[in-house]
Amino acid sequence: MSSGGARPLAPWRWLGVPMLYVIAATMVFAVPMRFWGLGLPEPVFALPVVFAWAVIRPSMLAPVGVMTMGFFLDLIWGSPIGFWAVCLLLPYGIVLGARSILAGQNQVMMWVWYGLSTALAIGAGYLFTMLDTQNAPYPASVGWQFLATVVLYPFADRLIDRFEDADVRFR
What we know:
Strand content: under 5%
Number of strands: 2
Order of helices and strands: HEEHHHHHHH
CATH topology: Arp2/3 complex 21 kDa subunit ARPC3
Shape: globular
Structural class: mainly alpha
Low-confidence stretches: none
Helix content: 55-70%
Number of helices: 8
Mean pLDDT: 85
CATH architecture: Orthogonal Bundle
Radius of gyration: 16 Å
């Protein structure tokens, strides 16, 4: 069987493997290394997976996976427990509700939708941080995190394409 052919839909393939990739990438980028005085960017690696899961809706377990990734980000980045879970569930719910609008859109429009969902998640995080600490995060840092996360859209697109190749409903 070729690697580009149709594969059966298994929950571990669509939920477990992307979650492991998110955990691994987050751990690598959380290492405090500096190059020429600059640290590694801190993109929210979970957002491409959250967006793809909302578009393809592979399982009813996806919201549990989103919450799990959010709790993991809370532990890694030292946020209050539930902070990133809520920030990830907000765009998941909005994109899930807009699935009928997203059906058949070209790649540029999907990237725009991904950027909007990223802005929602990071904007919610900015607002929740302001409310929690009574102090605003540095806007330039938040902007760089947004840009570093938006450029991750090809990973969401690849996951969506893999689902469409495996699901007979899309043929």
